[in-house]
## 1
Amino acid sequence: MIVTLKHIIEIMEMLAPKSLADGWDNVGVQVGHVDWPIRKILVALDPTNDVVSGAISEGADLLVTHHPLILRPLTGVNLGTPPGSTIALALESGLAIFAAHTNLDNAEGGVNSVLAQRFGLRDVTVLRARERVKEYKLVVFVPEGHEERVLDVLFRFGAGRIGAYENCSFRSRGIGTFRPGEKARPFIGEVNSITQANEYRVEARVSAQSLFKLINALQRVHPYEEMAYDIYPLHQTGAKDGLGRIGYVKQEVRLIDLARKIKETLDLDGVKIAGDPELLVKCVAVCSGSGSSLIQDFFSSDADVFVSGDLGYHDARMTEDLGKGLIDIGHFASERVIVDSLVLFLKKKIEENGWSVEIDSLKGERDPFKIIS
């Protein structure tokens, strides 16, 4: 089987659906075509000229990045400056570039979830929740002996995802009845005769975005001439997607000690803090990237400290006045954590599908800012 960019996009949709991206964002294919064959994938944070050159030198067919190469609409493609020079470099070498940005920030299991996990937070919830992707319960009736083929298609299209769990389904045995009409070509039974068949009822959750593609795929593998299925809309009871995360440390800790632990965990040269270094911290809010837009969400929450990047001077002053704390770890450090996590996710999905595709992170990517001491 030839694995194409389209196959990789379908996998990425399972983790970070395009529907979760903010309206101003440009996610998805930045360079390339969905039919391009993919044999090697590299993952990085930024699609800079150096990163793209590195991916090409390592023989990659696809570069998956967090930040988009093209964030704003182009008014021209100047080959002498980025992003025009980067686009030309990628096209000349047949390197596809794909970005998962705010959709990966918002997604459960995305950048913010990984950041909270790295800090060891417990009972984690979303800091600024967003409306969840509309979901349905899809129920398919299939004759005994064919249920595994149905389940395989369900899971390949991302059905059966509940929180951090995948491939969730339920099946029950029963007896189906039907009478094929004159023009029918039944898989089981005879025309004009009532037939009883041992069947399985197979059910799983599926996103609205995947629903009809999934049904079409199921109809191709289902043995019956007319596949019997039901679709039930699901009522969403809690948002698990959104910006930022908030959770609790295992044991109360001073702000200064928490900052030191985070510095060590992320292997940083330094971090900035605001607030009383002796502040006792139990509840922590985090936001990957630039966190200033969530500062009011932090202030109105139960969190004692906010860990993020690109925090402003006035953010720090207001935090002091409110008796809370800030830890600024920088934009790069707050998002670089997703690279290895994304490699593991893609590797798992590639292995599950039995594809021969190499996957790794691009080594040597560095924070553009340096600490001078």
## 2
Amino acid sequence: MKLNKLFGLLAGASLLAFSACEPIEDRDVLKNSFDADNIELAVVQATNGGNKLSIQMNTPGVTGYWDYILDTKSTDRVEVVFPFTGTHEFTYYATTPYMTNDTPDTKEYIQKSVTVEVTQLDEPLPEAYYALVGDDLGGKTWVFDKDYQWSDGQNLFWAMVAPYNWQELWWNAGSTCCPPGDADGKMVFDLAGAPNYTYFTSPDDAGSLGSFAFNGDFTSITFNEQSILGYDPARVNPDSKYEIIELSSDRMILYTASNAGGTGWLWVFKPAE
């Protein structure tokens, strides 16, 4: 009996040793099992073809963020007044517990998109769009306001200011010695199927098309694919994002607190005549 027990213990130990040499898991099985087909998306329009939208992710237990062209939001629902007509695709990025390159800060996302057709702008837009693009939303051209007067009476349109206070003037570059190379250029904004921004370096330039985007509370504007008028690699914001100091029908003042030169910078524009 004792001999049988001894053989049993030896056999069990051999099995454990053999098992320890085998992989604990099949790595091919450890992959993202999330299925985009199981995520329910919807866009609800307040009116037929209207621009007041409720963009929804309706699957319980799923978290992530929406990319709805104008901005991104980490939420399952976005309520927005969309500013232009056309067929548009919104994408939801669902967070999964799987990590890319086995690092916690690179989680894997899966994505799913939904489309909507906006045929009419029946809901009034936020005032910032009318100021930037025009009262009829048909497009608007902006140039430097070279007659804008600073608090001390001097003209100012492109200037170095403090990175902590846009009202603290350090150097009135544009109106003194050193205006930007595109000082006579222009910017055109329109909503013809997209938030279009066209940058012209001079009156004779054919123009280069990009896009623009406001943030959610209309306190900043980002220029995509093209530079802001008044381009200088040491002066512009590397992220092309600018704080809106003033945006009205007759003036736009933009500011960055961080540029490649380590200072703040100020731009003053007016509608072209």
## 3
Amino acid sequence: MPTIQHTDGLIAALFTPLHPDGAVHYELLPALVEHLIASGISGIFICGSNGEGPNLTLEERMQVTETVINAGKGRLRMIVHVGHASIAEARKLARHAQEAGADAISSVAAFYFKPTSVQNLADCMTEIASGAPELPFYYYHIPSLTGFSVDVLDFMRIAEKQIRNFAGVKYTASTLWEYQECLNYEGGKYDVLYGFDENHLPALAMGAKGCIGSTFNFAAPFYLKVRQYFEAGEIDKARKQMLFCVEMVRIVVQYAPIPAQKAVMKMLGFDMGPCRLPLEALSDEQYHALHCQLTDIGFFKFLPTGEALPAPLTTLDNS
């Protein structure tokens, strides 16, 4: 049975870069890994929602997984999302992740034919997790995208009994009261990662240590400053820094969130290419408007553009 590791720090939900024709741009992935290391990231979540995992073929997901792990193994914690509408295919991805050297796996609930109960969900996750018995398994709770919601604490009670490699939950929802219950279940035995970027500071107040986020790809230094202030007991400064993060997220989500975030990466020197349909890239007008809005709040004042990799920043008070 794998040891449960309690994550501390930021895990970036990695984008999958694409060529203009929609083919995966594998060659860019090692540079993205180096960028994240330079930004102070602790781990990578591979082929999740932000990485357009459900829009990639099995072969593409496997090659992305191998490329990222080879680029960052031993320097970043590698969690591979293996969720799929087909439980059998998810199990294949789990087995491959283990063979590729991943540190852990995670899966969403099936999102076409959905689970019918908490027990049914646990049975599905048990089947997937059994594909990689040597790796810690995290249930990925994201009802806004799967269209499936469940009492996560009830799931944990069942999962700990029947999923031998159950390690915790990637909790991506705004219901902080339930997150806190899960975090403290069995005295905090399980690793419950928080995944709602704009609730980062409230999650820290609930006891969060490890968090997975999409905006960590380009704004990790801002969140690291929030954590630094919080841990130092400088709560007013933490609130001020967090408000900046919230303003940034509010601007980005005015547009389609994943295409907009890929656009931000391009503004910072990483051309991530388009998205896979049904996601659509921002128009030129939207791209310009997004750039202007981020400029207005001082975003680019602290995050350099161009080819140079941004180093962790130390002065982010935005005063």
## 4
Amino acid sequence: MVTDFRSPLRGVVFVVLACACFAILDSVSKMVVASVPVLMAIWARYVMQALFTTAMLTPRYGRALVQVRHPWLQLTRGLLLAGTTLLALLALRFMPVGEFTAIVMLTPLAGTVLAVFIFKERVVPLQWLCVIGGFAGAMVIIRPGSGQFGWAALLALGCMAGATTFQLLTSHMARLQEHPAATHFFSGWTGALVLTLALPLTWAPVDSAQSWLLMALMGVLAAGGHFMLTLGYQYASAVTLMPYLYCQVGFAVIAGMVFFDHAPDGASLAGMALVSCCGAASAWLTAQRRRLPALGQHG
């Protein structure tokens, strides 16, 4: 993949647009699962996403999309993503979009902790404070014992755990030099094919044209969001873009207010702000730590 890190502003714009897509995707998903079985909704999303992704990537990459070094890792990653999506849609059935998004955005912080043990990465003390602060923010949102979200919050935490594992596996595959376009292609089709096999277990007639349109929109938003995210990483480095991913929390709050007339209470807003600030600060610290050795090499 050709990268040009001389255009970081363009990369930031693409990442912010991707975050807006993902926030709208979660809102549309919440609408769909209110009237359509969850597995059907996920199936429609993955089929549309796979078709849309194929149409976008094939002209540029051709056969390279199916030339992978580690097919079993690709299959595992695709299944993991489908399972994480299942937990996400189950949680969104019962949770507001903003609160759900803030909990899932703990993923980079959880990944920081696991990377210490798996990849032996070095983490400075301030990053540990960010991790503690981020998880404290999640507890403020969930408020265990309050009965506000009940077991739905466990689904969101499970989604976060799945997303963290997915992130670490993606990082490992990048180290193995798997092409990101092929990885993206395999993820979509793995979910689409597996969910097609499972579809008879949950099929139910959907007579509403609006429901079918919304399910198709889920696939378009998912593919479009991932495509813009990929474009963003072509113009700026991951450490530069990471803090901007937290704008998805703000977009999710706005989407919840627009589509569901839900405004988070003061405690939830405080928890969201804590998660976002700690996550962005941890990303910034990572960027600074990686920049210093690079400056030393050039100095």
